[in-house]
Amino acid sequence: MFAQKKGARAPRLSKVVTAALVGTSLLSGAFLLAPSVAEAKTTSNIFTLTGAHSGTLKLTSSSLNCQWGKTYSGKGYLVTLSHMKGTISGAGSGEWTLTAYVPKKGSTHVASANVHSLTDTSIQSNAEPIISFYETSGTVTFQGSTGSVDLTLAYHPIGSSTYSGTTTMTGSWNCPNGLDLS
């Protein structure tokens, strides 16, 4: 860039020029990272159901849609993701709520759940009649404002005594602006 005499010292850049070059370099790096950050947001807050019932549920970004904290007994955690939008074949469309009861932060493996228990993970519609899917096995990972599910569910219309179908639900949530009720 600069012609230099043999043995002469290289010209020194001023602190302002150096800072501008470093800032430009860092800023360029940020632009290179932007697609992966945007991509990560598209996979979070989406729940996919496959099997006897299929569909996609999306959690909106309102802080009122994400709540988590200790249960009343203090012996576990409760996560409530409400106003999820989407359609599940054979179960309807509209708003759905995911409720997860977990004993600890981290991953919890459900080997065999009791679908009649009110303290298992479920998703529920606000339709008439209310439709629920209760966990029968799988994993729930809870870190507070973030987490994920990979569960096998049983279909159950409220008011009915039947639990049927095998549906798998996978997805994750990221609710940094949610309500921490700990």
Residue stretches low in confidence (pLDDT < 50, at least 5 long) are 1-5, 8-42
Sheet having the most strands: 8 strands, antiparallel, barrel
Radius of gyration over all CA atoms, rounded:
25 Å
Please give the domain count: 2
Please tell me about this protein's structure.
With 182 residues, this protein is of the alpha+beta class. The chain folds into two domains: 14-43; 44-180, no CATH class. Helices cover 16% and strands 46% of the residues. The chain is built from one helix and eleven strands, in the order αβββββββββββ. An eight-stranded antiparallel β-barrel has the order 1-2-4-5-7-8-9-10. The longest helix has 29 residues, at 15-43. It is globular, with a radius of gyration of 25 Å.
Tags for this entry?
182 residues, globular, alpha+beta, 46% strand, 1 helix
Quick structural summary:
The protein has 182 residues and is α+β, with helices and mostly antiparallel strands.
Write the layout of secondary structure elements.
Layout: H1 15-43, E1 46-51, E2 55-58, E3 66-70, E4 77-88, E5 92-102, E6 106-110, E7 122-125, E8 131-142, E9 146-157, E10 164-174, E11 179-180
Parallel strand pairs: 3-11
Antiparallel strand pairs: 1-2, 1-10, 2-4, 3-4, 4-5, 5-7, 6-8, 7-8, 8-9, 9-10
